[in-house]
Each structure stands twice: as structure tokens, then as C-alpha cells.
Amino acid sequence: MNTILGISAYYHDSAAALLQDGVIVAAAQEERFSRVKGDARFPHNAVGFCLEEGGLDIADVDHVVFYENPLEKFDRLLQCYLHTSPGSLQSFLAAMPKWLSSNLWMEKEICRELGVSRRIQFCDHHLSHAASAFFPSPFRDAAIVTIDGVGEWATSTIGVGEDNTITLRKEMRFPNSIGLLYSAFTAFTGFKINSGEYKLMGLAPYGRPVYKERILRDVISLDESTGAVTLNQKYFNYTRGLTMTNEAFNDLFGGAPRTPETDITQREMDIAASIQEIVEDAILAIARHALDLTLKDRLVMAGGVALNVVACGRLAREGIFPSIWVQPASGDAGGALGAALWHWHMVQGKPRTPNPDDDMRGSFLGPDIPPASPEDDEMLTRLGAVWETLEDEALQARIAELLADERIVAVARGRMEWGPRALGARSILGDARSPRMQAHMNLKIKFRESFRPFAPMVLAEHQDEWFEPIQQNPYMLLVSPVREERRIPLEKEAEGLWGMDLLKVRRSQIPAVTHVDYSARLQTVDAKRNPFTHGVIVRFMELTGCPVIINTSFNVRGEPIVCTCEDAYRCFMATEIDALVVGNRLMLREEQKSRPMTAEERAQWLKRYDLD
Amino acid sequence: MTSAYMKGYADRQLVERIRHCTALGQVLGAICAVYGAYGYFAGMDHSDGFYITFWVLGSALLLAAIAYPLCLDSATRAVRNLTGKIGHFIFNALLTILYYLVLTPIGRLTGKASPALPFAAWDSPEKAVSYGWRDKTTRTLVQESGEAHIGNIFYQILRYFVQHGRWFLIPLIIVLLFLGLILFFAQTSVLAPFIYTLF
Description:
By secondary structure, chain A is of the alpha/beta class.
């Protein structure tokens, strides 16, 4: 058996993935085990899990592949300092010790961490992204677009995939980067880089794009025919300092960056709306350019910016490419999988047969919580859990009843999702029809900002009855508007409302998952990929007539999504979730032996997780 | 359930800690014991009690390092932490000198040769040029089978910079690589605290 271990590490979101004879056996991010959000350290836990899943010892692994080329990255760093000296000393001193002491000796470093002595293979950062997008996709051939902050030199690439080969034809190079541009605005609006970008995206519909013209005039130049961007370095500091933007940027946008956790003002909302629109325009232009270059009618995407579901949704609706497939773990974690797939298909030259349903197995590639296990029983008993065990169908019916009764149910069952989205295996579910649910879940369950929207799960077979037609979206990577006939017309007094006031207005028959611009980040649920959750929604629909429920990740603000039954139970008792499903066990809050956390204990517990 | 890999990793961590404790205990113990014994027998000007204390302390450290090295764990961490900070400070000072005396002059010269690089503000004398989309050269490193050696990596780095026309950076890179090698070994070596203080 030919085994390949892919690794991404040392920047953010370290992860490991295992292929056995070309089949994706396991993949997981380190943060889920270490409980440190975006953990960048060497992914020992993830590697341990992958090897266990494959029944292997590290010595049995045939090839270890790292997701990028450290030499070329070091070249970029040195070139950058050459051209920004003498003003970049601070950044030089921050980067060099780590590079000189470990990153540059990556091969030796990886060997030391793994406890082996062997050669390590190195892929190219964007080739890893491209491989993670194309090889598991359902397409025999496709155009490939990767967009992120920066890899070695490339910040975006356009390429083509055919059978078992990828050719990256074009690249946009550092420091011109759509990802870094979006991150700069993320930091300026008071959110954390590399994890708060989705908050900026969620904030955009509350604002008006009043800064768009200013950004396009002074800050960036956007080539509308190709999507290429050039950033005016007068306003940025990331090539020479430790911040993304500088004083000139502050002056242009009316003052200092927002301090995290302070009130969000109309300025932040308008900035979010402006930059979101620009990024969408750029992505659409890149897609058109990719079409011109490749003449393919299908597109695959990866890279952190591909997680901008609003932009991807618009891309899908514009119909530039009739079919789009986005890698569920599009960020750097996905590079681990891409690097392994690159080695299998392109270094070893193994043929590829596209799977019409894709090769991601619903993205359920992480550690398992089986329906029943003595280990989980023992752990839950120790934590004071009280449960009843039900067969699948009975459990689905009970969950549906609880949801219909406006109760909130958390589910930790089956293999954990690969990628940042919870798709039903580590999810908190709620009733999408309830007008109070968005604020309640944000403030009492997730302990996060009230403006944050929730995503709907919809039965794939009923998707078009509730949302504007869009392709199947099992990985929650595209946004689509709620259908016109499901919307509730605004009353006269609500028409003038703007910003956060819009939250008070009921906008559709499924208000909890309808964003203020009527958009929804939907996940289509089918019986093949996700049979248990499909059964729950079918039962819910029998009770209520509605095939849509809320799905949000099973965690609180700043916490990595839960991994084990222990994580799940602790999160359950720290929040106001009404019921918990672990495997085939159902636990009701009021029946638990251990008492829920007090407000003080909860505040202490939340402090463990950094804000994003 | 802990996987076999994680058990192996935990074992390696433990062995590493024991090695560090043993090295610190043996080196410090030997220094103290020899100093104490020499002073006592050679009849130096301090009181006998002073040298006996050193002798006993040194012998105790040596004994502990052999019998139960982990009892020196906290002390070892503290010493490594302290010497690490000293090393970091000295290393940053060296990097600062390199930055101003080597990197900046090279940057000035190469900047004059290619002023159109996109690191400048648009309204500066060096106008930024939009590179748009460029042909992508994908550089992967596919290695032959065998073992990873520092020598191979060293050679690979130098070859990369020569092949890509960065010959003018070679002197700087050689200095940086030697500094890096010292740090790389210092991080893993049991002699790290002593290397740092000698730095």
C-alpha cells in the first residue's frame, strides 16, 4: 500500500492529511485537538490521528509532503527586506530568528518533529491549493483559480487541470494580493487577521459601499478585464512593519482602526460593504480571465479568499462557469491534503478517475464519535452526564421535535468535518422559523456579536423552493438569496432603517437564517453524504412543513469547533444549549447531574479563547 | 485514546527533558565540585566552609543528574529560559548589525538597478508598476530517497540563490545560515545554555 502524509504548519491552521493508494483516509486540523484556534505549531495530534485512522506507524509512511517551498518563501522575505530597508528592521527582527533557526531547515525540522530520518518532499503553496481543489473535484478537466494572502511569491494563480495533471499558468505576485487587501481591512475594522475575515463579510450587508470609489482611486488599482490588483504601498505596512496598515490609511478612512470589542459604527459597516464589493468584482474578473485563458466550462477554487462565500455565491449566480467546486478546507489547512494529492498524481503519475459526487466523502474526514462506545460512556459518566440511548430513527424524531419546539440541539456524532464549516457532525441546530433565534443563539449560546448571521441547512430536494436556484452546495460554500415569495415585505416604518436596526425586522419565513440583504449561506443536505442529518430535517419537515433548519458550528466565540465527546459536553454545560446528542445518546439540559456554569465561571471559561 | 504516534512523541519529549537535565546537572555539578575541591585542598583564602559548600553542592548535582535527573527539571527550564533570552538579545544585536551594514547597502544598490519593484508608494519617486498576471513558475522540491542532512540543505539553499541570479546575496546568506545553524543546534542541543552564554 502506498501511503502519503501531507502536512501544513508554521504559519496558521496547521493540519495533516493521509492518503492510502490515492484514497483520502483522514484529514484534520491541529486546533481541534490542541483547542488553540488557528494553531500553527507542528500538527502532532493531527498526524497521530491520521496514522491511527490508517492503522499505521510513522515508519510505514512512504512519503511525507510539506505544503510549500520554504526556500522560495525565504527568497521572497529577503527580497522584501532588500527593497524596504532601512525601514523594515522591526519586521526583519521578528521574522529572521524563527526562519534561521527552524523554517529554513524545514526538512530537518519535520524529521525531528516526526522522529524519523528521511527525505521530505516540498510542494508549491498555490499548487497545493490547486491540487486540493482539482483532484478531489467531480470534474475531469477544469479551470483552476487560487486566491489567498500569500504563498511563496504568488498571491493568486490561474491554471488548468486535466486528468491527473495541473498546470498553473499565471500568477499575481506579492505584495499585490487580494487576500492581504481583505485582511488589511479586517484588521482595520477591529477583527483578527486569518480568522476574522468572515466577520467582515457578515458585516458588509449592514453598510453602504460609500468608500468604494476612494479605495479604487487611492488604495488599489483593479484591472477590470483580468482582476489583477496593485496595492498602493503608501497605505500599507505589511511589507515593512508588524501591522497591516499605516497612518496614511487611517487618515484616508477617518481615524484610527477600531479597537477590538468596542462598538461597531456605521464607518466599519460601510468599509465592510465597500471592500466586499471590490473583492467580489475582482473575483468575477479573475474568473472571466480564467475562462479566456483556459476555455474550460468548469471552475475549481481554493485559497483563503475562496472561503468568501458571498463572492463565490455571486460567481455561481453570474454563470461565468456553469459549474463551480470549492475545496471545503480552502485555507492553508487544505494545503496538507493538496500536497499529498500532488505527490500521488503528479510526482508518482497515478491516474485519476473523477467521482461524480467528489472524493471528499462529505468532508467527514476527522475523528469519529461512534453511535456507541464504552470510552465515551465512561468519559460522559465521569463528567456527570445523564442520557438515554435511542436508535437512529427515534433519535432523529426526538431532535426534530425539540427543534420544532424552539429548543436548541447540539450534535456531536460521526466523523468530524474537515475545513472550517460544521456540516452536521459537530453542529448546533435550531429552528430557522423562529424570529428570536438569531439574537438568542448569538448572545446565549455563542456569546458573540448579535449582527452575526446563521446559516441554513436545507434538504437538497427542496432547495429551490426556498432559495434562488443555485448548484448543490453540500459544503456551505456559496451564498444564495431567499426566494422572493418566502420574503416578508418590509412595513412602512421599517423601510428607512439601516445598519444594526435592520436586525429587528423580520424579513422572511425563515428569519433566523435570512441576512439583512436576504442572503443565506446555505448548505444542501442529501441522504447520501449526510444521512443522519437528512433524516432529522425530513422529520422536522413532517412536523412543521419547513425543510430548513439553522446550522452553526458547535463551539463558542473564539473556540475551535468541538472534537471529542468531552469537548462537546463541556461546551454544552457552559452554554444554554437545551439538548446534546453524542453518538446515539440524547442528553437534556434539565436532567444533567452536574450543574450548569454560573455567569462568573462562564466568563472565566470564555477567557481561554482569544477573540477573533 | 492516545495513538501510538503520540505515545512515541511523548516518550521523545521525556527523553529530551532527561538529556537536558542530565547535561545541566553534570556540567554545573562538575564545575562546582572541582572548584570546591580545588579551593579546599589548595587552601585558598576563603574559609573551608565556603569551598565545602561548593563541593557538596556540586556532588549533589552530579548525583541528582545520574540518579534522578528530572528533579532538576524546573532549574533546567529556568536556566534555558534565561540563557535563551540572553542568546535572543545577542542574536538580535547581530541581526541588526547585518541589517544596516550588509542588507541595507545591497538593497540600495539593487533598488537603483530595478526601481520599478512594487514595494513603493505610487506618489514616491519610484512609481509602482502593476505587474498584473505573470507567467507562473512552479518550484517544487522532489527529493531522492535517503536521509535528510543539514549539509544537503545548506547546499540546496546556496544553489537556489545562485540559480536564481541572487549571487549578490551569497555573502549575506552564508552569514545568516551560519547564525541559523548555531541557533538550530542550540535549540535542540543539551549544551544550549552553554552555547548561548558563549555566543
